[in-house]
Amino acid sequence: MERTLSIIKPDGVGRNLIGDVIKRLEQNGLKVAAMKMIWMTKAQAQGFYAVHEGKPFFDGLTDFMCSGPIVVMVVQGENVIEQYRKLMGDTNFEDAEEGTIRREFATSTRKNVVHGSDSTESAALEIGYFFNRFEIVG
Ligand code: UDP
Ligand code: MG
User: Fold this and answer.
1) How far apart, in whole angstroms, are the C-alpha atoms of residue 95 and residue 28?
2) Which sequence positions are flagged as catalytic?
3) What is the pTM of this model?
4) Which residues does the chain have with pLDDT short of 50?
5) Closest CA to 65 of 92, 40, 85
6) 3-class DSSP state for residue 115?
7) In the sheet that 70-77 helps form, which strands lie side by side, from edge to edge?
8) Which CA distances in Å does 104 have to 6, 15, 25, 60, 95?
9) DSSP 32
10) Per-residue pLDDT tens for 8-26?
11) Could you tell which of 112, 121, 122, 125 is best to mutate to test the pocket of ligand 1, judged by most ligand atoms within 8 Å of the CB?
12) 58-to-31, 63, 107, 134 alpha-carbon distances in Å
């Protein structure tokens, strides 16, 4: 059983899409193993996206990620890292497949509603960024 970190970004929370995102996970056999709502500081957003430091979109992305509350979740299931990335769709919603979360709900490359870890290494790092082992109960 594998775990990934999922985030419903400020645009998703602000547009009342929490239920839609969780519904898609659950309908695809994935389980929420931990969940909380937080509002990151700029420094926390910069730390979370440290891999993108120096890129042209880094400052706009980290401003966006601390512009409102987010929902962070540990999601669990077989092959969940890849499966959840598929459910999210491409980073750029215009390239995302029909029926994916981003294709359906994203409004720009930045405001694309959800985050999902992209490898076992990043999943472990990202889960540890927000949750300790006592908070993961699934
Ligand atoms: N992003 C952006 N401009 C870009 C590329 C990415 O604002 O040109 C934002 C977008 O919100 C994306 C996040 O930065 O989800 C992280 O980028 P990454 O390439 O890791 O995409 P993801 O893994 O989220 O699909
Ligand atoms: Mg990424």
Assistant:
1) 22
2) 115
3) 0.98
4) none
5) 40
6) strand
7) 31-38, 70-77, 2-8, 114-116
8) 17, 13, 15, 23, 11
9) E
10) 999 999 999 999 999 999 9
11) 112
12) 31, 9, 18, 32
